[in-house]
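Appendix B. One record, verbatim.
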Amino acid sequence: MLHSIERGRFSNLRNSWVTRSTYDEYEPDNTPNMARPILLGQIQERNFHQQFNLSQWTMCDVDWVSYTANCSGTYALQTSYQPGGTILPDTRLTLFAANGTTQLAQNDDKSATDKFSLMSYPFVAGTTYLIRIENLNPVMVSYNNFYYNLSIGGASVLGADNLCRSQSYTLDIPNTSNVVWTIAPSPNNFVSINNPNANPVTLSQISGRSGNVTLTATFNALPCINNGTASKTIHVGLNAPVFSIYAPNGTCQGQSYEAIGSSIGNGTVTYNWYINGVLNSYHGYKIRDVFPTNNTRIELEVVSSSCGISEKVKQDFTCTTSRFALSPNPSRTSVLIDTKNTVSFSEIRIIDKFGNIKKQVKVPSDTKTYTLDISNLSTDIYTVLVFDGVSWTGKTLSVF
C-alpha cells in the first residue's frame, strides 16, 4: 500500500480520468469480493491495469463488478470503446449469480470485427449479480493500459435517423417522468423542438435547410433510473450530394468536362450547379461545359420538393500552363516523361480508366525528364499524371 501511495503521489487522486494511472490505484476490483458496484443506466470508465506483486509490476487482465437490480427487466450489458485508450482490449463478459461461480450468461465479441462484448439478460429486482470482464488481447505493454467503457441498461431514443419536415421521437423505457429534451448545437437554423417536456417529442425542419443535430433526453424512470440521459444524432434535410468530374486532357481553361451528381429521391429533385459562384442554367443531374478559367470551382446543391435544399458540396480545379510529352506512345516497356525544360516535377502517377492508381513514383523536385518503367502494366489505356508542386497535369498513355 505504501509503495502504491509513493508511486502515485503525483497522480490526481480524486479523478483518475484526468491523470490516468498505470496501475490499480483507482480500481481495486481484481477478485469477486472486491467488485465495485454499477448502476442501471450508468456508463463507467474503466481499464485493465498493472498491479504490484512484491517484486514487479504485472498486468491484471480481469475486472469484477457487482450489480443489484432495483427493478426487473431485460437490459443490455456491454463494453465499448473509450476515447484515449492506447491499446484496444479484446473483452469477454461473463454474468454470474451472487456466489461468483454460477454462470448465467457470457459473450466474447459483439461481431467478427468488434472485439468488445454485448449481451442481454432478464434481471430480477432485488437480486445481486457479479460481472467479470476479461481482457483477451495478448499484447502487454508496460505503462500502457487497456481502457474501455462498461454500461448496463439505460434508454435509447427511438425515431428516424433522417428528418424531413417533422418527425416524432420517444424514449424506449417505461415509467418516464420529468423528461426534458434538448438539441445541440443550439440555437441552429435548421431544426426546432416542439414541447420539449413531452414524451414523445416532435422535431420540425426549418425553412427546408440541412444539418446535423444531437437530440438528448434527460429523465427519471423510477424506480429503475434516476437522472438518466439518452441521445441520438439526427441528420436534418437532404444528405449532402456527391458528384464526379470527368475532364479528359487535364483540367485547364477551355478544356471540356462532365459532372455527374448523385441520385437523391424524396420527391421532385432539381440540381443546382454553380460555376465559380454563378448558377448555371442547366438543372439536371449531369452537366457538360468547359472550364472558364485555370482556377475553377464547381459546386452542387440539390433541391427536393419534400425535403428542402441540401448542403453545397464543391470541387476546386487548378492548372498551370505546364505541359509534358510522353514518348514513345504507345509503349510496352517504358515511357519518357519530358517537360522540355519548361517546368520541374516531383511525383508521377499512372491511373487506370476506373481511377485506380497503378503506379506511383516520387522523384527529386527539380526533375524535368524521367524514364518510367511500365512493363508490369496490362494492355490498356491509362492516364499519366505529373505533379509540379502546385497542380497535376495529365496525358493519355496507351500500353500494348
